[in-house]
Amino acid sequence: MTVRVLTIGAGYFAQFQLQAWKELGAELVGLCDTNVDRAANLATRFDIGRTGADAATMMDSLRPDLVDIVTPPQGHKGLVQLCQQRGIPAICQKPFGSNWAESTAMAAAAQQSGVMLAVHENFRFTPWFRECKRLIDNGMLGPIHALSFRLRPGDGQGPHAYLDRQPAFQTMPRFLVRETAVHFVDSFRYLLGEVQAVSAVLRQLNPHIVGEDAGLVVLEMKSSCSALFDGNRLNDHSATNPRRTMGEMWLEGAQGVLRLDGEARLWWKPHQEREREWPYDPGDESAFGGACRALQAHVLRHLQEGTALENSAWD
Question: What is the pLDDT of residue 225?
């Protein structure tokens, strides 16, 4: 069955999700955005026949099988409600909702209604995190005691930071945690299990933005290991494209250390042995190694085959 998708939001990141739907064979039936010119330009690029500015009207006229919400957080509540009222499954972009109360209310409503609501939390679907999870599960690292990720995309300096790509970043409160660190909190949960305690020290390094853009976040996991997110958006790291992995990771277990570098290569150092490259498929050059496509394929399998959903709103 070909899934008919209505996308809401034609901003910078929508292009990656639209490309993934095309590659997965979904039918893009419409593109909705309050900026009609922006929607029209993107619709032409991806051969989408219908555009419009009113989401409810487009849902009612097109009757899609799935709605992909790719808008900033302040628009999530109303759009999710429109989908729930019509019984239409939806994927909602992260950060999910404007605040904790709003996000939990949306998730609870979806759970009660039984209408699928997933969150586009794509980093756990990167090829490198999937391979790390496979190696943890097969016992190669032994019991894990620590994980650290050093985020350095190098895209946040000066008065023009983010303006050419995602200008809302400049005015987002709690920017580092809400927009960026959420990816890694979710990925750490995917790799290590649930969090039982968290502490953080956050800073604002670029005076031209509103929110914090640097900080240290320490997570104590229920599995008794710890995870450190050490991030700033100003400095870069050694990589052809610093935004491919966004940084570097060290995953430490009793049997050795698995390291992710900026080229999406994994390096394995067994205890008291030399480090060597660990061969695996790091994906293509699309955003985050094809993570959008992998997430969207995961949701399609859930809708078509009833497989378990990793990225439900309630989770």
Answer: 96
CA–CA gap between residue 76 and residue 82 (Å, rounded): 10
- Residue 285: exposure state from Cβ atoms within 10 A (0-12, 13-18, ≥19): exposed
Element counts in the chain: helices (H) and strands (E): 9, 14
287 has pLDDT over 90: no
Q: Please give the distance of CA 148 from its chain centroid, rounded to a whole number.
A: 19
Scored b (16 or more CB within 10 A) or e, 124-142 reads: bbbbbbbbbeebbeeeebe
Q: To 5 degrees, how large is the angle CA 109–CA 113–CA 116?
A: 90
H/E segment holding residue 46: none
Q: What are phi and psi of 207, to 5 degrees?
A: -70, -5
- Residues of the chain within CATH 3.30.360.10 domain(s) are 127-285
127-285 in CATH: which number? 3.30.360.10
Look at residue 285 in the predicted model and tell me its pLDDT: 82
Q: Is the confidence at residue 203, as pLDDT, over 90?
A: yes
Kindly report the backbone phi and psi dihedral angles of residue 70, in degrees, each rounded to the nearest multiple of 5, phi listed first. -125, 55
Domain boundaries for CATH 3.40.50.720 within the chain: 4-121+290-305
| CATH class belonging to 4-121+290-305 | alpha beta
Could you count the other beta carbons within 10 Å of the beta carbon of residue 282? 19
Please give the helix or strand (H or E) that residue 121 lies within, else none.
Answer: none
- φ, ψ (nearest 5 deg) of residue 14: -55, -35
Say what angle helices 291-305 and 14-24 make with each other, to 10 degrees: 50
